[in-house]
């Protein structure tokens, strides 16, 4: 028996959505790309959530059959709420995907991971032929790392090891992401912690150099992936 959908009264999205009109516009834009039979990587965060809503509307109106590969539990629950058929990277390769970003520079390099879903987001992006990055103008920066630190997903046992290794990098500040002082560190879906690291400069080689530190599961730097930036 199939589970009844829409058990939750609301889709999963916590918090206010800033810049909502702009995000709705870019969400509408990406929904026009959906074709019958597509396998689509579904990003996380507020812009991706709005895009998912618009895509679900198109799927229902045009009776399209698509498969969704969510990049987080939040995205998975939203796909389920909207009645989309969910699959995984074990079974399908995404034809294309969409996702948000925290910063984008002129060379299409991204910082992602404010929502902590960077690991699965990178797996899905690396598997897709193309990913549309949905942003408003406020996400464009002249210099990557200007507003946002680079998040690292780190095995909790490796926090000190990674902190020590970072001393050999040109970094300005390292912070363990905390939920609240009382609740302790934010944990990712895989039970890892996040270290937010500010760098004075972000060369193209940095993503790979950070990934090589033992204990770093993934970085929020996305450099050299097949992306198309959709800006409103
Ligand atoms: C989550 C992400 C998000 O895509 C990024 O934080 C942008 O979020 P929003 O669309 O809410 O501004 O990387 O890990």
UniProtKB/TrEMBL annotation:
Gene Ontology BP annotations: D-ribose metabolic process; pentose-phosphate shunt, non-oxidative branch
Pfam families listed in its UniProt record: Rib_5-P_isom_A
Keyword Metal-binding: no
Top-level taxonomic group: Bacteria
Class of this enzyme: isomerase
EC number, as in UniProt: 5.3.1.6
GO cellular component, one term: cytosol
Keyword line: Isomerase
Keyword Lipid metabolism on entry: no
GO MF term set: ribose-5-phosphate isomerase activity
Alphabetized SUPFAM superfamilies for the sequence: D-ribose-5-phosphate isomerase (RpiA), lid domain, NagB/RpiA/CoA transferase-like
Protein's UniProt name: Ribose 5-phosphate isomerase A
Source organism of this protein record: Halobacillus litoralis
């Amino acid at each position: 028996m199939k589970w009844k959908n829409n058990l939750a009264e609301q889709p999963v999205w916590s918090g206010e959505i800033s810049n909502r009109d702009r995000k709705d516009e870019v969400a509408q834009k990406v929904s026009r790309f959906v074709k019958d039979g597509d396998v689509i990587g579904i990003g996380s965060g507020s812009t991706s959530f709005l895009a998912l809503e618009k895509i679900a509307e198109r799927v229902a109106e045009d009776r399209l059959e698509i498969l969704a590969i969510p990049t987080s539990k939040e995205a998975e629950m939203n796909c389920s709420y909207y009645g989309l058929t969910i699959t995984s990277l074990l079974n399908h390769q995404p034809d294309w995907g969409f996702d948000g970003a925290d910063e984008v520079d002129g060379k299409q390099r991204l910082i992602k991971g404010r929502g902590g879903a960077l690991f699965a987001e990178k797996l899905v992006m690396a598997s897709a032929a193309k990913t549309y990055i949905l942003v408003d103008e406020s996400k464009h920066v002249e210099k990557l790392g200007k507003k946002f630190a680079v998040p690292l997903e780190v095995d909790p046992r490796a926090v000190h090891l990674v902190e020590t290794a970072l001393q050999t990098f040109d970094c300005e500040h390292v912070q363990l992401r905390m939920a609240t002082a009382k609740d302790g560190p934010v944990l990712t879906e895989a039970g890892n912690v996040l270290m937010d690291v500010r760098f004075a400069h972000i060369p193209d080689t940095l993503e790979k150099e950070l990934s090589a530190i033992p204990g770093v599961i993934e970085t929020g730097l996305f450099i050299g992936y097949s992306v198309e930036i959709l800006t409103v």
